[in-house]
Amino acid sequence: MRPLYNVLSMKLCISTAEILWNAYNDNDLPMFHNLSSLKINGNHWLCSKCYAWHAIYLLLSRAPKLQVLVFELHPHCLRSCYAPKDQLEEPLDVPECLSSHLTTCHYKTLLGKNFEMEIVRKILKAARVLKTMNITVESHLSSKAKLRICQKLMKFRRSSKTCQITFE
């Protein structure tokens, strides 16, 4: 993993993140000191027996200067996935990048599933310097469902006083 130490931008499939989480303990995964942009994509999310949130949390804790975080997950795979209740428990500490460096977060193809909403809630709650949370709600949802999702997201507490939530 040594050649990855100095990457500035990384695009990572969620299944690769899970492999890293299973293969490394917290101290073995390298620090990505220069990583400023991370895009997480893939065909599945928090399905049963998956540890995606833990994998993402581990990556965030190893990228202290992360400024841009993008989730781009395929909606057809999200429809059948669910997250066991204990998968999104509050971590004991907030990764440094979330609290002091993350300025932009994009969540593309949000369906409004509980675990998706919880991910957004956690980021808004932890990111003290977040300027923009850009949400793209899945286009196939009804207007009523989209409005309900947007209204719920707007009620989430934000640590950043300047954070703007935008919807596409």
TrEMBL record:
Domain of life of the native organism: Eukaryota
SMART domains membership: FBD
Residue stretches making up the FBD domain: 96-168
Signal sequence annotation: none
Identification of the protein by name: FBD domain-containing protein
